[in-house]
Amino acid sequence: MKTDQEEVVRFNKSGRLHPSQRGRVIDPNFWFAVVAFAFGIYVLVRIPGYDVGYGYAYAAVVVLAMAALAAFCVGRLLVVRRGVITTFTGFTHDVGYGKTPLRPYPILLYASKSRGGHPLRRITFNGRTMQIHADVHSKFRPEHENTIYLTPNGKVIVNVIPT
Q: What span, in angstroms and rounded, lies between the C-alpha atoms of 18 and 35?
């Protein structure tokens, strides 16, 4: 089923997450955390030494890791359930592989190469820097105003719409 882009834009402009964008929040990181949590349950059952006492020390470490994984997963699920997104609008400048300009821009796009020679695309806005995928990078119009639609915690870019 193909999603109508105008419908997605209408949802985003009203401050809501479109159902087709849930995959940006419930991403492979989420599913890795779910599998790791399930593995933690398996490890808790299989830890030897509860009768001697040292099994409780191992179990405490596993329970702490599971608590962190559960917090991550519940946070992502709450974002999807609430369906609320935030926005950041600003003039966008694309540096490419050049140096960071002296003049501050609200949104700054730049690229670099990884150790393996693969391109890495990054964005700096609102005091934070994050890596973005090529499909998100292609939605930006450099030297124009762009609106970034984010999850409320500001960790996942859901959509970019040139204004």
A: 26
Question: Could you tell me the CA-to-CA distances from 17 to 23, 49, 80, 82, 148 in Å, in that order?
Answer: 11, 48, 8, 9, 13
Q: Report pLDDT digits (tens) over 12-61.
A: 889 899 988 898 899 999 999 999 999 999 999 888 877 777 888 888 99
Same domain, 127 and 153: yes
Residue 25 · residue 76 · CB < 8 Å: yes
Give the number of domains in the chain.
2
The CB-based long-range contact list for 52-57 (8 Å cut-off, 24+ gap) reads none
Nearest to 91 by CA among 161, 142, 126: 142
Q: Do 105 and 145 fall into the same domain?
A: yes
Write down the pLDDT at residue 146: 94
